Amino acid sequence: MPTRTTIVLKNGSKIYSLPAGKTGYFIRGFTLDLLIADEAAYIPEIVWNAIIPMIAVSAKKSGLGWIILLSTPFGKGGYFWTSFHDDNFRQWHISSEDCPRIGMDFLRKERSRMSKLEYAQEYRGDFVDEFNQLFSTELIMRCSTFME
């Protein structure tokens, strides 16, 4: 069966499945009532700059404009990380160690194969500092001043 990028429901609603690419350029122009972003932590910031205004139109017009973000964490930064720590979003965190579909033997092998940080991010769903980062994100933020 071919992949469908558009589904039209009987009530007239449309569901689009579109690749955002590196810039979001080709998805600009839509008004979104609901955005579901899979692997949201890996979506470049420039794409979020293209998407968020589309949600804002629906929020103002109809009170909708909902965002659902699904992802494995990818560092301590970016739209997904910020949203995960934002009180305007509801968060759920599920570790692979708590998932009955993933065997403990498999996870033990992965834990021995990967670095501690890689395992924490990929299987425990922890937001970890960059693997090659010399100073922790927390220390950098404490020592930095930002102009608004």
Rounded to an integer in angstroms, the radius of gyration calculated over CA atoms is: 18 Å
Which strand order spans the largest sheet, edge to edge or round the barrel? 1-2
Tell me, briefly, the overall form: globular
Please count the helical segments. 5
Provide the β-strand percentage band: 5-15%
Q: Which structural category do the helix and sheet elements fall into? A: alpha+beta
- Helix and strand run: EEEHEHHHH
Question: Largest sheet, described in full?
Answer: 2 strands, antiparallel
Percent helix range: 25-40%
Could you report the average pLDDT, rounded to the nearest whole number?
A: 86
Span of the ends, CA to CA: 51 Å
What is the β-strand count? 4
Give unreliable regions as ranges.
none
